[in-house]
Amino acid sequence: MQTVITSQTAPQSGFAEPIAATSFTGIGAGLRRYTWFVVGWNIAVILWGAVVRATGSGAGCGNHWPLCNGEIIPTSPRIATLIEFTHRAMTGGATLTIFALLLWTFRATRGRHLARFTAVASTLLLLNEAFLGALLVKLGYVVHDQSPGRFIVLPIHLANTLLLLAALALTAHFLARESGFMDGSVEYRYLGISLIGLGTTIAVGVTGSLAALGDTLFPAANFAQAVAQDLSLSSPWILRLRWVHPAASVLAGVFILGIIWVSGARQENGNRKLANWVLGLMLFQFGLGVLDVLLRAPNWMQIAHLLGADLFWVALVVLVARVVVVPLGCPGNVCSLRSRF
Q1: What pTM was computed for the model?
Q2: pLDDT score for 30
């Protein structure tokens, strides 16, 4: 049984949009493309952050933030300093692009446009991202540090990163919609199972970041040794709980399949291609996860696995938005929702 939450009483028959400002308002292609560029740039920042962790370069700028070893631009940098400084420079670029996106979105849209809400959310999550990143550096939760606090701050940091990426993807999606992009002109369907599916997917990302950290802090010489680490009661808890990541992946996969099935996403032409992409990327991620374990998590495989996870997350968020946030009065279980990319 589907759950429908409406912000206004739907008409008794037909597909009506009671609020006049729900038709396509001519958002320029430049803004739509720029928003997806911002999404791509932030994925690059995430991947380079993984390079920082994998290479042990988190202390490349010391415990200085936002300066690097007390300098605006390092004058005699080591390799680790270059890697960490590059990540900070990319993060600074992401900050500028997101603030520019916020201003451009407000200039190009009218009040109550859903993209305004997600653009504001992106900015707030960006500020929190900067705070959490600075906290990791200032507290020394980098390189081979095994402080309990690191295992608390890092998952929060990763969850915030995924929420930031989701908010940016939703901004791009709502800016591209031809209908159902104004608050008060939409209704929310399949909200419960969708929120659980997204939540479990975030849990997959969080447990994956802890598993990757465990691989970095306690590398295994071979697959047999890695299994022995997982089973040994004397192993650090971060190794003994590595099984949680694949278990969470399976659970998330079940809910994602449920979202696609109950919403009929693969039965509607507008959503079928995206739903197939989500399923394909999910299977691809399972394959990369198996290879990651068998190859003992080399750095390049961790980066590839993270890239696949980010692409999967963006595709999933947009698909959920298409099947959950639909124009008010849309008949049946499937709504024909057009958007321009």
Answers
A1: 0.84
A2: 93
